[in-house]
TrEMBL record, chain A:
Protein name: Uncharacterized protein
GO terms of molecular function: methyltransferase activity; protein heterodimerization activity
Family: Belongs to the TRM112 family.
Organism per entry: Punica granatum
Quaternary structure, from the entry: Interacts with TRM9.
A single BP term in Gene Ontology: tRNA methylation
Lineage top rank: taxon: Eukaryota
InterPro entries on file: Trm112, Trm112-like
TrEMBL record, chain B:
A GO biological-process term: methylation
GO CC annotations, alphabetized: cytoplasm; tRNA methyltransferase complex
Membrane listed as a keyword: no
Domain Ribosomal RNA large subunit methyltransferase K/L-like methyltransferase: 194-316
EC numbers, comma separated: 2.1.1.214
Family, as annotated: Belongs to the class I-like SAM-binding methyltransferase superfamily. TRM11 methyltransferase family.
Protein name (Swiss-Prot/TrEMBL): tRNA (guanine(10)-N(2))-methyltransferase
Pfam families membership: Tmrp11_N, UPF0020
Localization, UniProt: Cytoplasm
Lineage of producing organism: Eukaryota, Viridiplantae, Streptophyta, Embryophyta, Tracheophyta
Domain tRNA (guanine(10)-N(2))-methyltransferase TRMT11 N-terminal: 2-183
Amino acid sequence: MRLLTHNMLSCNIKGVTNGFPLIIEAEKVLEKPVDLNPDFLRNMFHKVEWKALVDAAKSLGYSELPESVDPAMLESPEFLHRFHHALLELHLEEGALVCPETGRKFPVNKGIPNMLLHEDEV
Amino acid sequence: MWYLCVFYHRLLDYRKPEVESLAELFGAFEDQKGRHLKWKLPEDHHPDSPFHFVNLPSEQVARDIANRSILVKGIYELWGEGSTFEELEAAIKAYPEDRKLPFLTQDSTFRITVDSFGKVISFQEQTARIQKLAFIPFKGRVNLKNPDHRFWLMETDDYGANNGLPPVVKRRHFFGREIGGADRKLLPTYQLKSRTYLGPTAMDAEMAFLMANQAMAKPGKLVYDPFVGTGSILVAAAHFGAMTMGADIDIRVVRDGRGPECNVWSNFKQYGLPMPIGLLRADNNLPPWRPGLKEMFDAIICDPPYGVRAGGRKSGGRKLLKGVIGPYTVSDHQRNDHIPSTAPYSLVECVHDLFDLAARMLVMRGRLVFFYPVALEDDSMGIMDNVFPEHPCFELIASSEQILSSRYSRVLLTMVKTSPYTADIEEAARLRHLDFRENHLKWLEDGNLHSAVFSPADALAAAETDTKVSREPKPKYRGKYV
């Protein structure tokens, strides 16, 4: 699971209001190189919750992202490279996503987060 | 300018929408409001004819469309046409010299291909026809493998029952210069029989490419498939350079596949395509998107489970199946390894959820492309009047029917998001969602396509006087207008 996906997900158990961002429990982290597409990154920049991305990257062991950002930074190749690396190249291969409100663990196996709810959670 | 557009004679209903989508993708409509091209038919031709004239703003747009299209055989600058060869010759001679001479120069190479629709022309006849074109002042050298300019002499036939088409009154000859043609290696490369990981409802490669074209997939765009399965639709989108993301409720398909070298990832690796940027197990009925997330995807392409070959499932199984939403509790010691049960997911609810997802998650002008089944018994009120599901955020721009059996067809719907997702629409969707949960069993009984498709023929024949129809020979080819 890439951090772009993590940035989109929340815990959707019935009644949960603060299900975002999910806390990452990392067991195995991989880095897979992806071709950098600046247009795609500029497009995604406005849609990403920045703080959640910074924290998620840290929990995967990458702390090169600035804490605060503004769109002007998209002109810097150095920044684009870091953003790209955090958003698309870091993978959570094994681990879990934990709901900040209920502590419910959503397992991540073989890079696939399992977001399906139990019968009593819907 | 008008160009001659020749189609492959298949999936007739999909041909014009594909060209129009590609025209929009390559910027043909920048200065106009409409998103439809002007089309003309050759004299006396039926709408199902493979020969059409289309008005395109430039040769470059025509080339881009032809090279990417799946159903266009070629787009040509027409130098002349006629009902007889003599008429054709006169028309070519009358075509302006300044349009012809730049392509006939001494330092260029060319080839002429003779092609026909509805009959076979022997090799000798082809050579004879090419020799009859000697009145055109070709100065360049012939190069059959890699010529600078390709010319085509095409003709239709005028005898008998024209391959299921109503008879064309007159024979027609066309001569033109090729602007662009389809990539014929594409479909053999991607055909399903050489795909490593397949499921029972994997999308046929040709159709998947058509869907990706309808969705205008291109580099820098993000395409999502909420019923991803083995990824057969996303493979086509990835081929055109789009970033892809998919979800499925069946974890065995998205996570495990049939082993380390036979899974969704390997289907992308097989063709050297970039991997999907996200695959997850999620229920489209209860999507796990964070609050406030919207306008994330540029296109959503999918083949929803409509209960003929595979039925949809959603979460909340045992609670819903008991017919009441009573307590159902998983005990704490079972919680970690618990496999949640699922409930059947009716098509109406599935399409409702799909619309809600797309209305929220697509960018403005983003496209929703999906298949919708139509049972042919309700033809009188169905497909001919284009009665398809609607949503206030979407405008239907194309519907293309593919007949699957004598009982049912599927229609590829292409919709564009034309208005933003408002709080009112969100609230209406939430209430509808609750209605589906509370009246789960009632909704399941409605619109059961499976029984319409698979019930024994005897039962149907007894109900109606169907016997007369079955005695008539089945046409080899069925189009919308035939």
